[in-house]
Amino acid sequence: MRRDDPRLVEVGAKAEATGPAPAQRDAREGAPPQPGLEARLMRRLLASLGDPALRVKLWNGESVATGSGDPVAVVGINSRAALAKLLLHPELYFGEDYSDGSIEVEGDLVKLLELVYRGTAGATFPGALFRLAGRRRGNTLSASRENIHHHYDLGNDFYRLWLDPEMVYTCAYFPAPEATLEEAQIAKMDHVCRKLSLRQGESVIEAGCGWGALAIHMARRYGVRVRAFNISHEQIVYASGRARALGLEDRVEFVEDDYRNIAGRCDAFVSVGMLEHVGLDNYDRLGRVIDACLDGRGRGLLHSIGRDRPAELNAWIDKRIFPGAYPPTLRQMLSIVEPREFSVLDVENLRLHYALTLRHWLRRFEGARDEVARMYDERFVRTWRLYLAGSIAAFDAGALQLFQVLFARHSNNVLPWTREHLYARRD
Amino acid sequence: MRRDDPRLVEVGAKAEATGPAPAQRDAREGAPPQPGLEARLMRRLLASLGDPALRVKLWNGESVATGSGDPVAVVGINSRAALAKLLLHPELYFGEDYSDGSIEVEGDLVKLLELVYRGTAGATFPGALFRLAGRRRGNTLSASRENIHHHYDLGNDFYRLWLDPEMVYTCAYFPAPEATLEEAQIAKMDHVCRKLSLRQGESVIEAGCGWGALAIHMARRYGVRVRAFNISHEQIVYASGRARALGLEDRVEFVEDDYRNIAGRCDAFVSVGMLEHVGLDNYDRLGRVIDACLDGRGRGLLHSIGRDRPAELNAWIDKRIFPGAYPPTLRQMLSIVEPREFSVLDVENLRLHYALTLRHWLRRFEGARDEVARMYDERFVRTWRLYLAGSIAAFDAGALQLFQVLFARHSNNVLPWTREHLYARRD
Q1: How sure is the predictor about B423, in pLDDT bands with cuts at 50, 70 and 90?
Q2: Is the N or C terminus of chain B more exposed, i.e. has fewer CB atoms within 10 Å?
Q3: Do A329 and B338 touch (CB under 8 A)?
């Protein structure tokens, strides 16, 4: 349906709605058709999202268009029940309804979600008005194990379909936007190692090591000894197997244990993409662990998804993708190091790199969608598509950030003089 | 007096004290001489400072040595009154007594102060135990004017004696430690401009512009229009004269006014070395000013002396050098930007660059000490020497930090892709 479609009626400054909704239709002869209750409620929801340029088609044939310019997508809402849920808690039920197919999107899903993020930036997400008081999952030792299992133990075969060959499932670093995902993940690992100024023979503790790519990279390329911790059983099994296959068992030890149980000393402490799963309540605990690991020349790096201002994780992501996760603000991240004898040396925000990383993942995922559907089902495909697309949108719109925080003991004066070494040619 | 001097007596594990203090002398025939009350109090003070490797000579001929290895300096305390004040409030009266000559230091003053900073790192400065409840000066509009006048209106002729030719009185950026001070101050200005991604024709607001070097540099080298604010009358007069002499009146406007009165819009907001004088109470006010200045593509940079953990400024520095000043922690700095629609993009800690900057200043200052003494007096020379030496020590020991914080509107996606451009060759 186009803007000049005669059935469209202006509703408010920017919005239009029309269609055959007989119960609410103005009965006067010749008067333009009035939108039905459903269409008006939908329009109000869209207004609260900042009137993004899109068109919504309801199951009853009515249609609502908002924003100026061509719509980036047409959203189909296929039942009254789906609309009711959406109105009740849009943040949660857009995802639920999209996953089960009762909401469909034609057009650019990423752009649609980005418009919504931009439209609601600075505001509390309108869903919060209706939010059902649901207690989110905490991160006790056992809850953490369950939360991590939920996501990371989906099966290595699944992740292998769309991650890079090294299986790095965190934000890559693209020296230039044209770099491949493979190059960018290696560049990210080098970026981290360079920030930490790793020297041959030093010892490193890694908290939350995924499939072990960084630990193995540090040992192979920087000659350090690594102890890497993770509570995902599948990941630890995979990582240990890889270390053995590469003959690195004596240099890299993969430990299936919680970061809270880390003991021993090291020259560098690194955690890439774990902090999101730690939870604010445990930051002090994590800080004490890091403090106990590092001596006077110790350095640390925390890499995490973050926010500009404190906010809960999107309700649907919390329910379906990352139970118990929380992206902190930079100030919250700094609360881990400030109480200890650390100086913050460097903070870098890589949010646009994460948006690009996710674009690579989404493209590979779509290329493997039939295989994913065979491994799981159609609902799973739609859930993961929405998660990846929504994450691109959130990083693009600035609703999410990616912070790398480097710190060292404040008495440590043997640090690189500038950051120029991070940008030296890689040969 | 050397370690093997037979008159020295071991006091405690590391400390020695002796000398002719007849009142307290052990009267038994043949027993080693006992230290007097003054020496014992002095020793206790030194223990609370972490037993730095130094020797203290009292007016009565007694001597106290602490630490292991050769003493870095010999401290002479020339009267009982000086010692009494020092014991009462060492943080304040070391400076007071050094300035008036009732405490003298032979040897490495910087190293001596650094040992004390390192020895008390993490602890509350022991002086706090005795601190007289003194209300520090605030930073209301009129108090700020007085505070700034106290330091920055000492006379341009004085600062010209030991600053670089551009009169930059903030931390320089040394691409390599061998760079000259002149080179390093220009490199710092370029570093700031590059971080802000200044583009020809853009407008910049600078809060706290010193003698105008950065404002003039931005206009000349980056083709931007600048409005630069400062409440130091002498500095504004000097800066305006320089802009006129360079024919830049149409591109750089120097305004004698408080940052709280800044109005209007700009593409970039920059403040180098002003935040130290703003005071925590006014951070929200400053944040609102910045927020009102920047549009969707706006960038901002705050450059300030800081701390790893919250602490008051050294009492003597507050009294004699920078009344009302306060170096914030990074988290406190971020409280300026977090409540607004900003993303932190980059934080860099340049504390070792400030230590080196100060070494250059102190060397030049000592080279001009006779001239300074003629302009002011001997006490002034000693006060400034202690301030410069103490600042070197504080940055070297990590008691002070130097943070550059870069931020932008969180919807701004037209930012440099990486930070590599900061390290491009300067031709």
Answers
A1: very high
A2: C
A3: yes
Nearest CA in chain A to B118: A411
pLDDT in tens, A196-250: 999 999 999 999 999 999 999 999 999 999 999 999 999 999 999 999 999 999 9
pLDDT band at A165 (very low <50, low <70, confident <90, very high): very high
List CB contacts (< 8 A) between B118 and chain A: 411
- The closest of B312, B175, B153 to A416, measured between CA atoms, is B175
> pLDDT confidence of A30, banded at 50, 70, 90?
low
Residue A30, Ramachandran bin (φ over 0: left; ψ between -120 and 50: alpha; else beta): left
Vertex A278: Cα angle to A273 and A282 (nearest 5): 145
Smallest CA–CA distance, residue A232 to chain B, in Å, is: 32
Q: Contacts of residue A335 in chain B, CB cutoff 8 Å?
A: 331
Tokens of residue B131, six digits:
């601190």
Q: How far is CA A312 from CA A125, A128, A276, A316, in A?
A: 10, 10, 12, 11
For residues A122-155, b (16+ Cβ closer than 10 Å) or e, as one string? eeebbbeeebeeeeebebbeeebbebbeebbeee
Pairing of the two strands B15-18 and B10-11? antiparallel
- Given a cut of 90, whether residue B17 has pLDDT beyond it is no
Q: What is the rounded distance in angstroms from the CA atom of residue A74 to the CA atom of residue A366?
A: 20
Closest CB to A411 among B118, B334, B352: B118
Instruction: Please compute the mean of the pLDDT values over residues B111-119 and round it to a whole number.
Output: 91
For residues A297-305, average pLDDT: 97
The amino acid occupying position A209 is: C
pLDDT-wise least confident of A82-86, A134-138, A421-425, B55-59: A134-138
Model-level pTM? 0.90
CB A347: neighbour CB atoms within 10 A? 25
Residue B60: half-sphere exposure toward Cβ, Cα within 13 Å: 20
List B229's β-bridge partners, or say none: B207, B255
Q: What percent of chain B has pLDDT over 70?
A: 88
Shortest CA gap A408–chain B (Å) = 11
Q: In sequence order, which residues have a C-beta less than 8 Å from that of residue B374 and are 6 or more positions away? A: none
Contacts of A396 in chain B (CB under 8 A): 413
Burial class (CB in 10 A: 0-12, 13-18, 19+), A255: middle
Query: Domains in chain B, ordered, with CATH?
Result: 10-130 (3.30.1050), 141-423 (3.40.50.150)
Q: Which of B330, B335, B412 to mutate to test the interface with A (most CBs of A within 10 A)?
A: B330
Whether the Cβ atoms of residue A15 and residue A42 lie closer than 8 Å to each other: no
What residue type is B29 in one-letter code? E
- Give φ, ψ of A266 to 5 degrees: -155, 165
Residue B401: closest C-alpha in chain A: A343
Distance, in Å, from the CA atom of B284 to the CA atom of B270, rounded to the nearest integer, reads: 16
**pLDDT tens-digit readout, B358-403:** 999 999 999 999 999 999 999 999 999 999 999 999 999 999 999 9
Per residue in A348-389, pLDDT (tens digit) is 999 999 999 999 999 999 999 999 999 999 999 999 999 999
| Interface contact flag, B411 A121, Cβ < 8 Å | yes
Q: How far is B422 from chain A (nearest CA, A)?
A: 8
Backbone dihedral region of A12: left (phi > 0), alpha (psi from -120 to 50 degrees) or beta?
left
- Enumerate the H helices of B250-377 as residue ranges: 283-293, 315-316, 330-337, 351-367, 369-375
ipTM of the complex: 0.89
Nearest by CB to B331, from A176, A331, A401: name it. Answer: A331
CA distance B183 to chain A (A): 15
User: Is residue B3 over pLDDT 50?
Assistant: no
Look up residue B395 and give its two tokens.
């940055």
